[in-house]
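Reviewers of the previous submission asked for a worked example of the structure-prediction workflow described in the proposal, so we include one complete record here. The input consisted solely of the amino acid sequence. No template or homolog information was supplied to the procedure at any stage.
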Amino acid sequence: MVGEIIDGELIVSPRPASRHARAASSLGIEVGGPFDHGRGGPGGWVILDEPELHLDAHVLVPDLAGWRRERMPTYPDVAWFSLAPDWVCEVLSPSTALVDRTRKQDIYREHGVSWLWFVDPAARTIEVLSRGEHGWMVTGTFGGEGEARIPPFDAVALDVGALWDIKPASASER
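From that input alone, the workflow returned the following structure tokens.
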């Protein structure tokens, strides 16, 4: 179970199902290599799976989150983070989509998160929102197979199809 506190209410959700876990794990690999570790990309980010965020009285656990290194120049040795991320990704599942798209989305906006992604493994889409002066704006929707340059990580093309499919290893990889 994953526990979050939103507006003083404990929200308990089941651990992610396999399709959800696969999309989140694959996205962490796709984004983390070039943007966190600088392998084949510009670096400049700290990318984490399921960080615990303490944003005022709220305790949230997004599937992935990222901070620009200029905002988090040293990685703290802490159990949770009070610094709001620059990017948050919520992988949607039937049990979490409503809270992710309403209450959590509002909290992220109120705390200055610049980019919010909703990854929907069932629909095979990534919806990208950017925070504007008057709220969230849909910046783009990406999906299916192939590569895409998705803000704020558009410096490198990401393999969108890798989020949905488990490709069997070839004979040479076994």
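The radius of gyration is 16 Å. We consider this example representative of the routine output the project will generate in years two and three.
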